[in-house]
Design brief:
Elements: E1 2-11, E2 14-24, E3 29-33, H1 40-47, E4 55-60, E5 63-68, E6 74-76, H2 79-86, E7 89-92, H3 104-114, H4 120-133, H5 149-161, E8 167-171, H6 179-194, E9 198-202, H7 206-211, E10 215-220, E11 223-229, H8 230-235, H9 240-249
Parallel strand pairs: 3-9, 3-10, 7-8, 8-9
Antiparallel strand pairs: 1-2, 1-4, 4-5, 5-6, 10-11
The structure holds adenosine-5'-diphosphate and magnesium ion (MG).
Residues 40-41, 171-172 line the site of magnesium ion.
Length: 250
Amino acid sequence: MIRARDIVKSFGTNRVLHGVSLTLRKGEVVAVIGPSGSGKSTLLRCLNHLETIDGGSIEIEGETLAEPGADQRSRYVPDAEVRRICRKMGMVFQSFNLFPHMTVLQNIIEAPMTVKGMAREAAVPIADALLRKVGLLEKRDNYPSRLSGGQKQRVAIARALAMEPDIMLFDEPTSALDPELTGEVLRTMRQLADDHMTMLVVTHEMGFAREVAHRVVFMDQGRIVESAPSEEFFRAPQHPRTREFLAHML
Ligand SMILES: Nc1ncnc2c1ncn2[C@@H]1O[C@H](COP(=O)(O)OP(=O)(O)O)[C@@H](O)[C@H]1O
Ligand SMILES: [Mg+2]
């Protein structure tokens, strides 16, 4: 579903991704872990073109998003193609990013109506079904300010799903939440995984990485240091830096 090869990304003179390669297969749940500043968010943002890459290539469901030109700098396909390809991916951020001036329902139907041109009559039943799925149908007419952090994040997940993505990217979806609210969000994500959604999840939740993810990728200083099936990753981490990180986290 995603094939990224040798991604290089700098901000000014600061190189933050030093040739990162990653594949994500259909139905696979991959957890990305690593210390703060290691480039996890940048990697996710590069995959769905919230950042542009300097080097390397990205393919989404077999379609090229960017690949190196003759000078080795990455070139993107035309804008309309980039937008169409990136629509296959939904993203959930640490900070929810709901529209504060819209109700829960309006938040969810906005993109299907404006981006996909869906009629309101078609978008509303889909939104209701998604709200039921994340357990928040009774909040559909509330404004985000009336919701808890956990509820906001579940709405954000429903909003991303409303665009019917094939792949979901999560960037520390529970890091902004009080500990007692992380469970409800993790349960929603686990449910998505059980429904065979393809997911790439940056997280500090080692329980989720261990129990829900099929594979764990450990990043440090802009590189993937280790990648292994989750059971193996936690049982027998190979790299000293992985072991050191896990010793701090577990
Ligand atoms: N928009 C940006 N402009 C400049 N530097 C950035 C930007 N985004 C991230 N960085 C830098 O890139 C590095 C990796 O950041 P990030 O991808 O957010 O790491 P992580 O998500 O693993 O904490 C950090 O040094 C950070 O300061
Ligand atoms: Mg981050």
